[in-house]
C-alpha cells in the first residue's frame, strides 16, 4: 500500500526518460512510481491536485541560513538613503537597555545610495557606549565605531571605520561567537522561509570560519536543530577553507591539511551532511571589491582585491583538492576566476579527480576566453540570477557596456557544456527560485533593463539549474533533482506551469505547498 498518491497533477519530472506524468506514488518518503505503475495501487491518502503543476523541490546551492536568520532579527537601516536617517536608526537602537559596552549589530548597510561610506566618527555620536558594527549587505564589508577600532589587532587597515574583506573578518572575530541556541533559532527561521519558496534542500556556503562563519563550533548548532526535529529542509554544510589545519598523515594519503579526524565532503546523512570546502578568492561587486582584470568604471583605477596573498589562496585550493574535498571556490571577478581556474588545473594535474565536481561560486564576471576552461576542468558555475534582477542596473554601469554581458552568464555556460547551477546567496538578495528563473529567461532587471540579453536561456534550462544541476553540484543526483522512482519524495506544488505563463509572470506563480520526505509541510 502506498503512503500517498498524488493524482490529477501536471508532474514535470525533470527526467528526460519520463518527462510528464499525471499520478505519483509515494512510500516511506520515496517515489515508487508514476502513472500506470501506481494508479491502481491502494493508498492511505489520495491527494487530488486539481491540475496543479508538480516539480522536484528546488535546490538552492548557495545560501547563508545563519546569517539570514540573524539578519531578520537585527535592526536594519536598509530603507535609509540619507546619512542622518541611518544615524537616527542607530541612535534609537543604541539607546535600548543593554550591558555597558555591549555589541550592537545593524543590518542593511549599503553605501551606494549615500555616495560615500559612513565613518567611525559619525557612529560615535550615536553609540551611547555600545560597540557598533554595521554589516554591509554584500557580506564583504562593514563600518564600525571607534570603540571597535580600538580593539582591532595592529596592522588591520581601515578607512575611517570602513573595513573590507579580511579587515572586516578581524572585526567580526571580536564579536563572535554566537551561542549554539542563538544560531539554531536563526537557522530554523531561515530554513522555514526557504521551505515557503519551494526549496527542499540547500547548501550553507561557509561555516566555522571565513568571512561569514558565526562560531568555531557552528556545525553543532545545525546538529542541535536537526536532533530536535527543527530542520525542515535538507542542508549540506560547506566548511570554511581556514578551518583546515596541518595534520600528520601517512605519505600515501597525499595531503598535509585536513579537518580533525580527516572529515571531508560526504560525511553525514540525507538531512544534514558535510559538503564542499569553501574558499574565498575575492570580494563582491556591491562593495567594489571583486577582483577584476580591468578597473570598475567611474573609479580611479580600482580593480578590487584578493582576500589574501594569491599564492596562499592557490595553495589552499590545491591542498583541499589533495585532501579529498569537493571545492567551492568563491570567485566573482574575472581576475579571481583566473586564480581559481589556474589553481584547480594545477590540483587536477597533481592528483586527477574527475569525479570531484569542483564548483566556482558566483562566477560573476567571466570573460569569453574563460568559458572553455570551465568546461575542460568539469567545473560547475554556481550563479545568483537575482543579483542582476535587483542590482543589475548598478552592476552594468560599473562594468561598462563591453563587460555587462559577461555577468552571471547563462547561455554562455550551457553552450560550452558547463553545468549551470542556480542559487540565491540568501540573505544578500531575494531567495525566490521562481523570480531567479524568471530573470534567467528574461535577463531583465526590476527596472526593465535588459542585461546581457544574449545570455538568456529557456524555461526548462532554468528549471534544471534549480533541480537537476543543483543535485549534481551537491552530489545528490542519486536521490534528488528529478521525480524518478527511487528518489526522495521532495517536491513543490505550483499554481501554474512556468512553461505555460508569460515569462514576466514566472516569479509570481503561487507556491501551493512543499513536500519533504513525501509529507505536506503545511501539516507540520
List keywords for this structure.
8-stranded parallel sheet; 16 helices; globular; 524 residues
Helix content: 25-40%
- The share of residues in extended strands comes to 15-25%
If you average the pLDDT, what whole number results? 95
Strand order of the largest sheet: 8-13-14-17-18-19-20-21
Structural class: alpha/beta
Organism: Kitasatospora albolonga
Domain Amidohydrolase: 45-519
Protein name: Amidohydrolase
InterPro entries: Amidohydro_3, Metal-dep_hydrolase_composite, Metal_Hydrolase, YtcJ-like
Could you explain the architecture of this structure?
This protein is of the alpha/beta class and 524 residues long. It contains 16 helices and 24 strands. The protein has helices spanning 65-72, 83-94, 120-124, 146-149, 166-175, 180-196, 218-227, 310-322, 334-350, 371-377, 385-399, 401-404, 411-415, 433-442, 459-465, 468-473; strands spanning 2-7, 10-12, 20-21, 24-27, 30-34, 43-48, 53-56, 58-63, 103-109, 131-136, 141-144, 162-164, 199-207, 234-240, 245-246, 257-258, 272-280, 327-331, 359-362, 380-383, 420-422, 491-494, 511-516, 519-520. It has an eight-stranded parallel beta sheet with strand order 8-13-14-17-18-19-20-21. Strand 18 (327-331), helix 9 and strand 19 (359-362) form a beta-alpha-beta unit. The mean pLDDT is 95.
